[in-house]
Fold:
Amino acid sequence: MAALDGQVALVTGGSRGIGRATSIELAKHGAAVAVNYNVNKEAADATVKEITDAGGKAAAYQGDISNRDQINATIDQIVADLGPIRVLINNAGATADRTLRNMTYEQWDQVIDVNINGTFNVTKKVWEIMGEAGGGHIVNVSSIVGEEGRLGLINYSTAKAGLLGFTKTAAREGARTKINVNAVAPGFIDTDMIGGLNEEQRENLKKEVVLGRLGEPNEIANVIRFIVTEGTYMTGSVFNVNGGMYM
Structure:
């Protein structure tokens, strides 16, 4: 038997980048994966197809995590279709990069609503489901910029730092019902989030990394999978996967 046979995993923002790689990795280890997306149905369907073509089980579910009523209905549908959620990967995020001086209130609200409020919305809904099912694992995808800050990313840095506090407190509360809560803090990963950078900018980023390269989405997915399959005595921890940028 695979490590996650019989377990349902929800991956928010599961159609692209780290979310896509994580959905595929969890399915490889036996999970039935609910691939959540907000807008890009085509990408979500492609992720599901890759999983099912390989013999895994997955389905795509639309839901804006910042909209409480909508994401609650989405989670209800997932449970009806697949069963109680035992693994939750809070991966969905949003960016709107500006310095503090130039940032609009709308840009601030957008990033906080998705990264912080959205994580709360999903976790609150899944919390009771997971507890009644006998426990489970929650992994929150933070970022190196939540640990060390970054010029022009004040809203994103604030949100990702907030996820670390959320993780540590939820871990203390979740222990009562056998819910382990951890976080990963990726460095610069080769996803759409940095896809707009030109070659010079990419090379400059690499110079900041001890290992001298950008990370790959599957390298984050592998750590997430390890946490949820082997992390029986780990909770409240932050796993830095950043090529040595922040130690």
Summary: The chain is about 45% helix and 15% strand.
